[in-house]
Amino acid sequence: MRLRTKPVPPFDFHLSATIFAGGDLQIRTYENGTYWQVLRAQNKLILITISSTGTVDNPELSVELQSNEEISNNDGKLIDEIIRSLFNLTFDLTAFYEEVKNDPILSKLTQRFRGLKSPTTPTAFEALVDSIIEQQISLNVAHSIERTVIKTFGDVLTLDGHLYYAFPTPYQLARATVGQLRNCGLSLRKAEYIHDISKSIVGGELNLESFKTHAHVEEIIKELCKIRGIGVWTAELTMLRGMNKLEVLPADDLGLRRHISYYYCNDRKISSEEARRIAEGWGKWKGLAGFYLIIAARLGVEV
Questions:
Q1: pTM exceeds 0.90 for this model
Q2: Reported confidence tier of residue 101, pLDDT bands at 50, 70, 90
Q3: Maximum CA pair distance of the chain?
Q4: What span, in angstroms and rounded, lies between the C-alpha atoms of 83 and 105?
């Protein structure tokens, strides 16, 4: 099955997908203008392959769907909804660009990266698990552990002799033992956190996805921080990555602070409080502005 999706302009697919470049070929990556990942339409595994067939001002995406099972029209609609959320295709960047037009750094970056939209994980659960894994370790090590968790516990889709892995569900991680999770490289505490959260979701005591519709971010942070293993940094990162709460700035993140410092403070070491003060000028788009700085640093852009 092939879908045609028209994002709200401006939208630059290449810029928006470049954060995934260099990813695992069996999980998710962006390469030579094409993005692919296994998604779930209810319980059906579907490999999506996305490429751009439009322009920044008249964007259009071509999406190929492949599965070992028959793909229904309803499956196509579900996948289209996930993709729209995955790349925030319905989001209009105009208000953000207007908000930061007087910021000397971001005004230049928004021109340089016009059409860049921040991605969102298919589920808040995925963002939370990744955020827990990334607590207090390097991103390279964290990404290695994340890949191991996915390939150990996630479902496998085989197409034309190639294996593709889907992110594990709460049920799959709840069914695993703490010892099995530790074998993926997780510390005892992180293994316990992920196991307990997965069991809470399966048992109906925790509904992470419901937070996506909550309007007040401070309330979401308060509720998430009641969960063992979740502090403010983990909550904010989860909200930004998995709930599309673009007003949230995880200022305790050392990497993000480093990028803010590089572009705003002559590369000197800054505190999370100072980073938040700088971000006040970005209005309700703090997290999105931070993403622009991350991409700028990743691409080596000077302003």
A1: yes
A2: very high
A3: 56
A4: 30
